[in-house]
Write a structure and sequence with these properties.
4-stranded mixed beta sheet, 326 residues, alpha/beta
Length: 326
Amino acid sequence: MISKAKITAQGAYVPDKIMTNKDFEKIVETNDEWIQKRTGIYERRISNKDEFVSDLSYKAVLNLQKNYNVDLSDVDMIINATLTPDYKTPSVASYIQSKLKIPNSGAIDINAACAGFTYGLNIANGLITSGQNKKVLVIGSETLSKITDYSDRSTCILFGDGAGAFLLEFTEDYPSFITSTFGSDGEKGHNLYCSNLSTHMFEEELSNPGYVVQNGRGVYKWAVSTIPKVITNLLNQSEFSIDDINWFVPHSANERMIESICEKSGIKISNTLLSLKNFGNTSSATIPLSINQAVIQNKIKKDNLLLLIGFGGGLTYSATLIRWTI
């Protein structure tokens, strides 16, 4: 099916508080050089105690409005991707609908962890292309600092908070979306989880309830073996090759992981957009933050081809090949 969805605006927001690698030297056994060498992260943003995902999402949308002077009063669907919502219900998307006073909009939250934003884009593209909706806000936002165990040196150095937002609109002749794919390997879900009501989803008993728990080696092994194949299959669905891609925008999980994925996929690291250096791993927000940074730096040009791929908790992945239409 030929897409009828066009990306018309984007924006982002990160909290003011900065937590550097040096700050972690005071609370766990680590150091700045070790963190940089193994992750590529220099600093991350941390939300205040009274600052939540709904606040970050709302400010990202306000930034989108400011950047492109768009009218959001006729948005008819809001999709917020997050694994750290303020409440189980009402949804963050409902809060955004209320704050923006959008009268006739649906509102849903989705949780695909680090693949959430690309899942949201693909869902929005499907809704618009099918004729169900005409104008959709897609937001990826996280306050991972609120579910991070700062005594666990293997995970606490990774995560930060932030949000990014895209506006998608119906178009007859200039769509952004070329092809997409998604999938899951739920049997490996125990490698990255944050428990809630149950601690017995998997064969072994889960630990550290309420905090992010990650088997870094397990996630790394899965990602570097799976994501290059996903990229190949995605491009095989299109008329384009790796050489046609102007910018590769993966989930900013870990720089060493991304380097391995690029090497296996034949992608130049110089053509890869990441947000982890200054913001850390922000799960569903990493991809829109990476794009926002590149837009500010005037790297992305109109009609550039961007390959977006999110992957993580689930273990899930979602990818989309888009033409930049802003």
